């Protein structure tokens, strides 16, 4: 994932200021807003990461399946904040090319999350499958309740 951040930063720096000009006040407000959001995303990502065990290379190192807090709304909140952060960098630098690279690398984040989910399914089994049915992968929007096998809601 360092490659996707690196590409976003390099292209944003090389092509800074290439988004359409909306006036100095508009640009200033967008830069201030994106800077504030960068700090919030970093704080949220750090908070989520601190909840992990010291060693967390695989699912067996976690004492339980995380389904509370941010994980009650999104299966991959850490990735979500890192994705938002990656998109904010070129917005702050006002770079069309950086934003394009960030969008192109979103598939890498998705692929990483899918690989992680396969491991979680193997380790946690039915518990994780039920969690997947209840909670969206990235976008924390309310899901409609799915019908159970008996047809109840």
Shape: elongated
N-to-C CA distance? 40 Å
User: Which stretches are poorly predicted, pLDDT < 50 over at least 5 residues?
Assistant: 146-153
Q: What oligomeric assembly is this protein in?
A: single chain
| Number of helical stretches of at least 4 residues | 6
Concise summary:
The protein contains 6 helices and no strands.
Protein architecture, described:
The model is unreliable at 146-153 (pLDDT under 50). The chain has helices spanning 2-14, 24-50, 77-93, 96-104, 106-124, 126-134. The protein contains six helices and no strands. Helix 1 (2-14) runs antiparallel to helix 4 and helix 3 packs antiparallel against helix 4. The protein has a single domain, classed as Four Helix Bundle (Hemerythrin (Met), subunit A).
């Amino acid at each position: 994932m360092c490659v996707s951040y690196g590409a976003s930063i390099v292209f944003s720096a090389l092509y800074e200021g290439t988004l359409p000009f909306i006036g100095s006040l508009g640009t200033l407000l967008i830069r201030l807003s994106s800077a504030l959001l960068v700090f919030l995303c970093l704080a949220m990502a750090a908070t989520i990461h601190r909840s992990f065990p010291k060693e967390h290379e695989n699912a067996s190192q976690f004492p339980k399946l995380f389904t509370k807090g941010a994980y009650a709304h999104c299966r991959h909140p850490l990735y979500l904040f890192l994705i938002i952060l990656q998109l904010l960098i070129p917005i702050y630098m006002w770079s069309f090319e950086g934003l394009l690279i960030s969008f192109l690398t979103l598939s890498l984040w998705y692929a990483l999350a899918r690989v992680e989910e396969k491991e979680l399914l193997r380790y946690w089994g039915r518990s994780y499958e039920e969690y997947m049915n209840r909670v969206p992968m990235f976008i924390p929007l309310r899901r409609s309740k799915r019908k159970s096998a008996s047809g109840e809601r």
